[in-house]
Design brief:
The complex is a heterodimer of chains A (about 425) and B (about 325).
Chain A: E1 2-12, E2 17-26, E3 29-34, E4 44-47, E5 52-55, E6 57-62, H1 75-84, E7 87-92, H2 103-116, E8 120-125, H3 139-144, E9 149-151, H4 160-173, E10 176-179, H5 184-187, E11 192-193, H6 196-201, E12 205-206, H7 209-225, E13 229-231, H8 237-249, E14 253-257, H9 259-263, H10 285-296, E15 302-303, H11 312-315, H12 332-341, H13 347-362, E16 378-388, E17 407-417, E18 420-423
Parallel strand pairs in A: 1-4, 1-5, 6-7, 7-8, 8-9, 9-10, 10-13, 11-12, 13-14, 14-15
Antiparallel strand pairs in A: 1-2, 2-3, 5-16, 16-17, 17-18
Helix pairs in contact in A: 4-7, 7-8, 8-10
Chain B: H1 20-34, E1 51-56, H2 62-73, E2 77-81, H3 94-102, E3 108-113, H4 118-123, E4 129-135, H5 141-155, E5 162-166, H6 173-184, E6 188-192, E7 208-210, H7 214-218, E8 223-226, H8 242-249, H9 253-256, E9 264-266, H10 279-282, H11 289-307
Parallel strand pairs in B: 1-2, 1-3, 3-4, 5-6, 5-8, 6-7, 8-9
Helix pairs in contact in B: 1-5, 1-11, 2-11, 5-6, 5-11
Classes of the chains: A alpha/beta (about 425), B alpha/beta (about 325).
Chain lengths: ~425, ~325
């Protein structure tokens, strides 16, 4: 089946393209990019006039909860949410039941996604067996089974020695280590950012240094071992500064942040709003500005959602007991487009952070680009579409979003997976 | 009591949510109701036919008893539920427990809970009134109101008072409610305690000065309020030993001399004698600790009365 996308503003930072062009897809592969292309007989034609055409968006940090926690989300519902949000690829974290710490579980994820999913799923294997922080996982086999990285996301690797060895071993296997940077002794049993709001609400705080000290340690270990490191969900201005300095020294470090860290602050917790509870927690306005500066100057390479679905029974309870995390796949694009409206990023820079950079960091071949010969993963965006976030219209099984009821501008009108339109179905 | 209709709150969860007028009204009502407690027959029919559930997820003798007596003196029917006898040990959620209680049509649920904000959570789900008898490290409005009533009785005003609060402010809902309430009433608060027990940004909570040591806080104070130190904090990272705590943050006669000669000594109880408060001070002339307890009943009567919509109190 062939597809012609006509007259859109094609933005592909991987080859420096930002122009009104047509794209021709043949048999799921990008055949040609140019002006005035004609479709072979029987092609589907999308009129993209006034729309933005980008390489398929990639969310390098999601939780699909499959296997084992399917009451929150599964590979089908999670990838449907991805497609609805304009994402053609997602990287799912290994904190499932069982943990993705061996090739069998990794293969299950890959196969189920291939057979039933609406987006490419690249699993992230665990750094340590069972994510228990004791022994390294079989990273070679995880990679062979399709894992794009390793991480014990959700919990840090407490031991410095083990983190060092993980970085070295992973480098040998050619697989990226993603750090969940947190010093659990400093985070303690905190439930929100430490500061004035926590003091007023009488909630236990998590200080910024719980993140920054762990970021610093992991960055230094990457430097020591000359190994690549990716830092997940950066939420503090201090972590941005540490990573900026490390990059200037030539350390092979990359990082991501999530939309809630550049949109919200800990003020959102007021009213004991459990949909504003996540780890790392929402920080202060000065952190929010620091994150924006990090995005603008390129310190922060990627925007990922940390999509973390939870059942109503796990969120609609007393604040201390509520689980950490929010869903993000279906709100990430319009929230990130606000960075363009706010003058923080240009639209090509945003596409870079939501598609090209994740593909490059994780080595996802023929993704995150519209170079002819690439897999035809394409997102067509209407940047002017205004819509409201409504729980019952979300594709995700879970509805734990602080953005319910928010008016959004910008929407993926077509999500195209290997030449096939998966959104709208 | 003709101004009772001015109280427009269905719940009393935090003094942060009340205005100075609300607080003034509650204190005036408490002053009027207090007289009932010294009658021979200590009962008025004001809340006859009302059902009040005391739902206490944390152990409490003083507060629970005080709320119960307050309700009974107003002729309400009371039921006490505590964790050892409730379904919470069977894994029932707070929401389910409360909805089950609500099905029995109480007018007020008075709750103490170890998690900050639990009362807001319930107020969103229940149609009855909720009164906070203490939530986590957030607020304890009835304690602060009884503290304010005790100060007002002694000085005739709250405006312009210098109030020292000494101890573990971080974990103290008593401190937070007093900061909220006393600031609204025009008092100035001076806090002292080890920096490990001083929450960040506390000076922004109200008319608050954080002092470098206890002497500075007590110096020239009208009121010295000592907070109870949780004995189990000893030896953890917040505090080396109770001995050292007592030496630097305990109130004894010598330090009390720094306060005004007629300064009041207050404590929310229960006291750790010889730790935060020397026995001779606790039992001395300047101690108002038992007045606080006495006023607790009157203040809680006023709270119950106003969330039930006010109306006429039988003056007997």
């Amino acid at each position: 089946m062939n597809l012609l996308i006509k007259g859109g503003r094609v933005i592909d930072p991987s080859q420096g393209v930002d122009d009104t062009l047509d794209l021709l897809v043949v048999d799921g592969v990008l055949q040609e990019m140019g002006a005035g292309l004609t479709a072979p007989a029987g092609s589907t034609v999308i009129d993209a006039t006034g729309l933005v055409v980008t390489p398929g968006l990639i969310d390098m940090h999601v939780h699909l909860r499959d296997p084992g926690l399917e009451y929150k989300e599964d590979i089908v519902s999670g990838t449907r949410a991805a497609a609805a949000g304009g994402f053609t690829s997602v990287c799912c974290m290994p904190n499932t039941k069982p943990v993705i710490d061996n090739k069998t579980v990794a293969s299950y994820v890959v196969n189920k996604a291939r057979e039933e999913g609406f987006a490419n799923v690249f699993p992230v294997g665990s750094i340590t067996q069972g994510s228990k922080g004791d022994n390294l996982s079989e990273m070679g086999e995880l990679k062979e089974a399709g894992c794009c990285a390793v991480s014990d996301d959700g919990r840090p690797v407490v031991s410095g020695e083990l983190t060092r060895r993980a970085l070295e071993y992973a480098r040998g296997m050619g697989i990226m280590v993603i750090s969940h940077a947190e010093d659990p002794s400093l985070a303690g049993d905190g439930v929100m950012n430490e500061g004035y709001v926590a003091t007023e609400l009488g909630l236990k705080g998590i200080p910024w240094v719980a993140e920054d000290s762990a970021t610093a340690r992991d960055v230094y270990l990457a430097e020591l071992t000359a190994s690549p490191l990716h830092v997940a969900h950066v939420s503090t201005k201090g972590s941005v500064r540490i990573i900026r300095n490390a990059k200037a020294r030539g350390v092979q470090v990359t990082c991501e942040t999530a939309p809630h860290y550049f949109i919200l602050t800990d003020e959102a917790v007021r009213g004991y709003n459990t949909n504003a509870k996540m780890n790392p927690p929402l920080r202060t306005e000065s952190d929010r500005q620091g994150i924006r500066e990090g995005l603008a100057d390129g310190t922060i390479d990627a925007i990922a959602t940390d999509h973390a679905p939870h059942h109503k029974d796990e969120k609609d309870i007393e604040f201390d007991l509520a689980m950490n995390g929010i869903i993000g796949l279906e709100t990430s694009l319009p929230l990130s487009l606000r960075l363009v409206d706010d003058g923080v990023l240009t639209l090509p820079e945003l596409v870079e952070k939501m598609s090209c950079a994740p593909a490059r960091i994780l080595g996802l071949a023929r993704r995150g680009t519209l170079v002819p010969g690439s897999v035809a993963d394409i997102t067509v965006i209407d940047p002017e579409c205004v819509w409201t976030v409504e729980a019952d219209k979300l594709a995700s099984k879970s509805k734990n979003s602080p953005f319910l009821g928010w008016e959004m501008k910008g929407k993926a009108v077509y999500t195209i997976l290997a030449g096939k339109i998966v959104n709208p179905l | 009591m003709g101004d009772a209709a001015l109280f427009n709150h269905k719940h009393i969860i935090a003094l942060r949510d009340l205005s100075a007028d609300d607080i003034r009204l509650l204190l005036t009502t408490a002053e009027n109701l207090k007289e009932i407690n010294s009658r021979d027959i200590k009962k008025v029919p004001t809340l006859r036919g009302k059902t009040i559930i005391n739902l206490f997820y944390e152990a409490s003798t003083r507060t629970r008893t005080s709320f119960e007596i307050a309700a009974k003196r107003l002729s309400a029917d009371t039921v006490n539920i505590s964790p050892s006898t409730s379904s919470s040990t069977k894994g029932e959620t707070l929401s389910d427990t409360a909805l089950n209680l609500l099905a029995m049509k109480p007018d007020i649920i008075v709750m103490r809970h170890n998690i900050s904000g639990s009362h807001y959570f319930l107020a969103k789900r229940l149609s009855c009134s909720i009164i906070n008898a203490g939530d986590g490290a957030h607020e304890h409005p009835s304690q602060a109101l009884l503290d304010m009533l005790t100060m007002k009785e002694r000085f005739g005003r709250l405006d312009g008072l210098k109030v020292a609060i000494v101890g573990d402010v971080s974990h103290s809902r008593v401190a937070r409610s007093n900061i909220q309430g006393l600031t609204k009433m025009g008092s100035h608060l001076f806090l002292a305690g080890p920096p490990t027990m001083m929450p960040p940004g506390v000076e922004r909570l109200g008319n608050v000065t954080v002092c470098k040591d206890m002497r500075e806080a007590v110096d020239g104070a009208d009121v010295v309020m000592m907070l109870r130190i949780q004995l189990e904090r000893q030896g953890k990272s917040l505090l080396p030993t109770l001995k050292e705590y007592s030496r630097y943050f305990g109130l004894n006669r010598e330090i009390l001399k720094l306060a005004k000669p007629d300064a009041m000594v207050m404590h929310p109880g229960p006291i750790n004698r010889g730790v935060e408060l020397a026995s001779d001070v606790a039992d001395g002339d300047q101690s108002h600790i038992l007045n606080q307890v006495e006023n607790g009943v009157a203040v809680r009567m006023a709270m119950l009365y106003h969330v039930c919509g006010g109306g006429t109190v039988d003056a007997g």
